Amino acid sequence: MHFYLPTRIYSERDSVKKHGNEWASLGRKALIVTGKSSAENGALADVTEALEHQGTKYFVFDETQQNPSVEHVLKIREKGIEQQADFVIGVGGGSPMDAAKAVALMLAHADRGAEYLYEKNIAGEKDYDAALPVVEVPTTCGTGSEVTPYAILTRHDACIKASLPHKIYPAYALVDGKYLMGTKREIIVNTAVDTLGHFMESYINTNATDFSRMLCEYGLGVWRSAKNILIGAGITVQDCDTMMFASTLAGMAIAHTGTALPHGLSYYLTYEKGVPHGKAVGYFLPGYLAASGPMIRKKVLSLAGFPDIQYFTAFIHRLLEPDDVSEELVAKAVRGLMSNESKLRNVPFAVTEPLLYQICRSGFGAVIS
Ligand SMILES: [Fe+2]
């Protein structure tokens, strides 16, 4: 059993500005990878203020795609080379944070092309791959990317979203719930469901250890304490702090276990239909729990504050608008999962095609057409 997490985490109000003297001097010039909305929640302003205070130059790339593709990462790398950036800062949700890691990897291997991103066995027995230092500032409460070594990109060559085989741990995670205030409820709901998925898939996972279970058991309690905001209660800044903290804890858990079937299935929905990540994961959570053993299912549901699987399924269906999903897409996801050895390895029960169909059907109910 081991626990390895080389990321320095600051989770508190104004963490970006308070610790600028550390992270803002990781290099001479930063490439900031972000999207347009980060300019609105104050995160980008805090980052640039801290860099200026430290006398560190920066270049802002604020056109990061949702679900960034391999080609998009290479385009951002060109900016980094042009600007002679020597560290990378991701500001936003999963898309800019994952893109920042991939760009940092490719800047450290500037002589390599797209094929390097999915080249396997680079890390070997090491716990990380060579990349420029990365700082992550999350502004949504779902991905946990600020503390994981994972970067998930869209692969148009394989028609899917897929995690890089490289491990790129951020040097710093600067977590502050204030960036969530004012975020659309729909985004908070989807990303909080992603966090729930991380906890559930990490807990029901062949790689789970006492370390990762400890994070899930405590973290699910944190998540549960704020879950009423998802069904319509007013959202306070304390709720935002709580959900953001839960997201980081869930990221720490999956950094050690990886995710399982719901994430594996979700990538097909996101690639083919543009369903937001957390929402796509959420569809498959009731089915994943139903397929797991009764003892562990009961434990996870109770930690998350649900009396039984029926209640949990109704909660998820209430939160997530149904999407019309074709039989063809379900079949593609099932076939893809059955050949995804790395995801199947994480599942602590036998996975068959009929079981995957059952998990998909329980997610969409009558909306499969
Ligand atoms: Fe996720």
Largest β sheet strand count, sense and barrel closure: 6 strands, parallel
Poorly predicted regions = none
Number of contiguous helices? 15
Q: How much helix, percentage-wise, in residues?
A: 40-55%
> What is CATH's topology name of the largest domain?
Dehydroquinate synthase-like, alpha domain
Radius of gyration: 19 Å
Question: What structural class is derived from the secondary structure elements?
Answer: alpha/beta
Strand content: 5-15%
Number of strands: 8
Average pLDDT level: 93
- Level-2 CATH architecture of the largest domain: Up-down Bundle
Provide an overview of this structure:
The chain has a six-stranded parallel β-sheet, sandwiched between helices. A two-stranded antiparallel ribbon has the order 6-7. The model has no long low-confidence stretch (mean pLDDT 93). With 369 residues, the protein is of the alpha/beta class. The chain contains 15 helices and eight strands. The protein has two domains: 8-179, Rossmann fold, CATH 3.40.50.1970; 181-367, Up-down Bundle (Dehydroquinate synthase-like, alpha domain), CATH 1.20.1090.10. It has helices at residues 15-18, 20-23, 43-54, 70-83, 94-108, 185-203, 210-226, 237-257, 261-273, 277-291, 294-304, 309-319, 327-338, 341-345, 353-364, and strands at residues 8-11, 29-34, 57-61, 87-92, 134-138, 152-155, 160-163, 172-175. It starts with 7 loop residues before the first strand and ends in a 5-residue tail after the last helix. It is globular, with a radius of gyration of 19 Å. Helix content is 50%, strand content 10%. Helix 4 crosses helix 5, helix 7 (210-226) packs antiparallel against helix 8 (237-257) and helix 13 crosses helix 15 (353-364). The chain binds fe (ii) ion. The site of fe (ii) ion (FE2) has 7 residues, from helix 6 and helix 10.
